[in-house]
Design a protein that fits this description.
heterodimer, A: 139 residues, four-stranded antiparallel sheet, 5 helices, 8 strands, B: 473 residues, FAD/NAD(P)-binding domain, Severin, six-stranded mixed sheet, six-stranded antiparallel sheet
Amino acid sequence: MDTEEIVEILSSFALFADLGRADLQAVSHTFEEESFSEGQRILRQGFSGTGFYLILQGEAAVVIDGHERSRLARGDFFGEISILLDEAPNADITALTPLTCIVLPRDQLTEWLLSKPPVALRMLQAEVRRLRAASRWRS
Amino acid sequence: MSYCLRRLGIRHALLSYDDGPGGMFRRFPIFQRLITWSKPHAPADKASDQYGWYDWNSLLAEEPEHRSLAPSFMDGVSYFPARHEMEEQLIAFAERTAIECRYGCRWEATRQDEPDGFVLDTSDGEYRCDVAIIATGMAEPWKPQGVEGIEHVPHYVDTTAPETYKDQRVFFIGKRNSGFELADGLLPWARQIILASPRPVRMSVLVHSSAAARARYIQPYEDHVLGGGNMVLDAAIERVERTGTGFQVHAQGTSRPGDLQFEVDSVVAATGFTVPLGDLRKLGVKTFFQDRLPSQTPYWESATVPGIYFAGAITQGSIGLKKYGHPSGSSAVHGFRYNALVLARHLAETRFGIQLDRPHVKPAEAIDHLLAHATRSPDLWNQQSYLARVLDHLDDGSFADAGSMPLAHFVDTYDQDGVAITIETDAAGDIHPAVYLRRGADVSEHLLAPGHLHAYETREHRSQLSSLLQGWV
């Protein structure tokens, strides 16, 4: 994908709904594009040093202790909890289809979120929705 | 790659459009010296494997007389070889190891052969093969889409002699190594230098990665931060317009928002390179990184077209675990030369039915074996958290040395119980060994302590590793 394609895709994501074009271009340069084939693991449960990923294309499974718990698709993100809590991920993320993501190394996430408060707020809202869904599932 | 294949007895043809070895170094880098060092005097013998840790430019060889050739061609002025020195050592390696290559041969088209394999059409006729290995490098100039007028901007490869920029205001699009290399070279010539791209500069010394802007080009950045007049800016370039004798550049600040406009005499697109993939996309080879690199498996095979493999700088497209955001060293000789060794062994076993030796290691020797590799093996040091040294754990309780393999393969798809050791740099910049244990489908990661002077054959490390391997040693 070229920068313009990535910017177009990012502009459709809820996470970036408050960002203008220059900011989206900066995101597309700050993050790096990575590609994974079907079946490939992106995050590994219990492994250190993972990054923050945002899915541009494809679908992935969230797998905990060998059991699939949920699925992620275009616009979903993962890896942020491990970084923000400074813990190893508690799940594997495995590509179910060819997967294209953009990635931010862990040491840059906190600073990046602090520099983009609207994105931080959108991420918080997404986390709350996930928590609510998990609470409903448990009850 | 050809040397490694021949050592394993794999018949192959080596084709190159160049008229001799080391063609790239006749032109690049523009300002003469490489950014990879070779230390003429190092704490390891030049004939040893370990010397590769200190010599990032020589190709690998089994025969002591063919190892570590780079320093013998260097004049002692710098520990970064000049490009003609690099070219000379590559020519010498090819001659002395009797590499057989068909030079001046153009690869023109590729098609799949029945029932499997490939046919490569070349200017010298057809080549049929079971496996095609593409090693064309990141060799084609690349400019980003979406910058209006960038087609009128000369690329890095079109940079002219430094004196042609005398007393000019020069604008570089891009602030990675190629941008900083040119800026550094033009410091004594240009009136003002401006480097700009959307993302803040990543310096190797700060982010602990050789893939970031290297320290030897840091002078333009120091000039910027000390207010010396040259500028290093975070800005998205929107438009480049020709004016009477120069250019007008329009940009949007990113780290510090705002409209920016520059009147300059010259603009150079230091925007990097892409892989010349010929017609491989039509064959189904998927790419990423703005269509610049082919997607690859951990063993550098196309993720979408089995049988197409990659070698050389293209192997940076096999990302590995990229722990703490550190990319592999596969973009330069010091990294990809080890990928070639590993790939040749992999092809020998999986494609050509060659059974390779896996020397036995007694349980009592396993800990020393692993820690010795962590302390001295240049492949682990030059390909941190990317290549791993692996011991298989056998049914009789002993170990077999499986050699080096991609860490991603060991943790995700390997089918043997065993232990792998790597060298890794963590978020704090501490360098330490990491151990990965595979017992059935369970794979766990264990970080060993960093060591003063990078020495890991200590009582503390033995004790840590012994606890991890309890029941096995």
